Amino acid sequence: MSAAQPATSSSNEDALDKAVDQGLNKAGHGQNRNTVEKISDGIRSGFKKLTGKDVPGGDKNPS
């Protein structure tokens, strides 16, 4: 069975990326770095729409 490579912690991951990665791994869904980034960007976007504020700790290199 071929599973997706789990994302690895790197110096350019922010706290939200690491939390998403850890949550996915704990649930048994290891994802690659790009997928983790897309999920965390979606969470960040939804948070901003709901609250009008950026996620505390923010993205280190926003696009």
Automatic annotation (TrEMBL):
Residues 1-13 have a biased composition (Polar residues). Residues 1-63 are annotated as: Disordered. This is Uncharacterized protein. It comes from Pseudomicrostroma glucosiphilum.
